[in-house]
């Protein structure tokens, strides 16, 4: 699995042509994306588009380019504050029932943990998790510690996240990624990526002891 920032920017800026999309990328990425887009024929553009749409939540390859534009704008209008409020409202109703039923919830972090298409992200960092648990302070309201998703950001300390939220981690995805400076990343072998998996697993085992 690989996320390629240049290819994504090429689609966003030069194929989808989302309004003001160029503001979300560095000058270097825009230049590389423009050069790449000029090499793509219509079949290449279609393949890139379908790959991106298929990877979107609820995408399943079902959006046309025009529908995607419309959905993006509607979602963007919700904003980070609106999206967070919706999540808190939902969990405020669900978490007490989960407690009564002995069910443990395990929310997955944003994947990737940064904005795409200018869309809001609300569970990408330790600070986001901290705010969510403060807002909905039920033991049943827990976390999926996805090392791949959190680890796609170099400012996320996975071991520290495991240490701070250990009693609220209800599920773990032990994945590693290799990051590039431009924001691209790909899933790697467990011991060959940029995340310290040994330290993470040691901390998780320590939580169990």
Any descriptors?
single chain, 209 residues, mainly alpha, 3-stranded antiparallel beta sheet, 3-stranded parallel beta sheet, 11% strand, globular
Provide structural commentary:
- The chain is mostly helical.
- It has helices at residues 5-15, 27-37, 42-54, 65-101, 126-135, 147-150, 158-164, 197-208, and strands spanning 2-3, 105-107, 141-146, 169-173, 176-179, 185-188.
- The protein has a three-stranded antiparallel beta sheet, with no helix packed on it.
- A hairpin with a 5-residue loop joins β5 (176-179) and β6 (185-188).
- α1 packs across α2 and α7 (158-164) runs parallel beside α8.
- The protein is globular, with a radius of gyration of 19 Å.
- The mean pLDDT is 94.
- Using only CA atoms, what is the Rg? 19 Å
Query: Helix and strand string, N-terminal first?
Result: EHHHHEHEHHEEEH
- N-to-C CA distance: 34 Å
* Proportion of residues in β-strands: 5-15%
Task: Tell me the overall shape.
Answer: globular
Mean model confidence by pLDDT: 94
Largest sheet: 3 strands, antiparallel
What is the number of helical segments per DSSP (H or I, 4+ residues)?
8
Q: Give me the side-by-side strand order of the main sheet.
A: 1-6-5
Helix-strand makeup class: mainly alpha
| Percentage of residues assigned to helices | 40-55%
Number of strands: 6
């Amino acid at each position: 699995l690989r996320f390629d920032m240049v290819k994504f920017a090429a689609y966003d800026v030069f194929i989808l042509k989302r309004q003001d999309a160029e503001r979300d990328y560095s000058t270097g990425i825009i230049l590389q994306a423009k050069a790449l887009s000029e090499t793509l024929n219509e079949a290449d553009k279609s393949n890139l588009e379908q790959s991106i749409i298929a990877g979107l939540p609820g995408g399943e390859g079902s959006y046309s380019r025009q529908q995607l534009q419309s959905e993006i704008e509607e979602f963007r209008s919700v904003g980070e504050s609106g999206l967070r409020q919706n999540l808190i409202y939902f969990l405020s109703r669900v978490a007490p029932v989960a407690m009564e039923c002995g069910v443990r919830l395990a929310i997955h972090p944003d994947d990737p943990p940064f904005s795409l298409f200018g869309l809001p992200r609300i569970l990408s960092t330790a600070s986001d998790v901290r705010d969510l648990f403060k807002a909905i302070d039920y033991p049943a309201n827990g976390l999926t510690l996805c090392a791949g998703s959190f680890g796609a950001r170099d400012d996320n300390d996975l071991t520290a996240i495991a240490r701070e939220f250990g009693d609220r981690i209800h599920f773990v995805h032990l994945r590693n990624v290799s990051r590039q400076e431009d924001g691209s990343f790909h899933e790697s072998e467990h011991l060959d990526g940029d995340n310290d998996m040994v330290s993470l697993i040691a901390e998780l085992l320590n939580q169990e002891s």
